[in-house]
């Protein structure tokens, strides 16, 4: 039973990867707005019905959205060591997702495509908001705080910003790996971006 389950999961992963690869290739060739679900399914050698078992629409396929990334992130958050800081947990979560995204070798081209397409950018924004909402809820629970607390929401949102900054800087300086830039961003966050900003200086600023 275990072997059969493992085989099914591998086949699902392969099918999802094939659809995402076909969607990206076609979007790069024709432009995202000119690609259809039928073309993506045909290129991946599956039915349209199978396509919709993996993606709700073509934009998610082009983006390479994989719900397993969020599931693993939530699990990592739930099982994080008690003495691990929330920001460190988010660092591990973002680093793991980034590693998965880099594994297909299309991170840069996909990023450029997204930035050139309003529809893809909009879908990415919607997806990111939903991801952040779920991650914030999980982090809030882990920290033992009531819903609506500022700190977990800010940690999750800042972690997402750090990832976006790292990817943008990588475009400007391709010789620097995204992972290295991401680590640098999180170290700055952990230290406090504005080291001069503190209670004493706040008082001076308002005096």
From TrEMBL:
One MF term in the entry's GO annotations: transcription cis-regulatory region binding
Source superkingdom: Bacteria
UniProt KW keywords: DNA-binding, Transcription, Transcription regulation
Domain HTH tetR-type: 13-73
Alphabetical list of Pfam families matching this protein: TetR_C_14, TetR_N
SUPFAM superfamilies membership: Homeodomain-like
Binding region for DNA: 36-55
Protein name: TetR family transcriptional regulator
Organism per entry: Kribbella sp. HUAS MG21
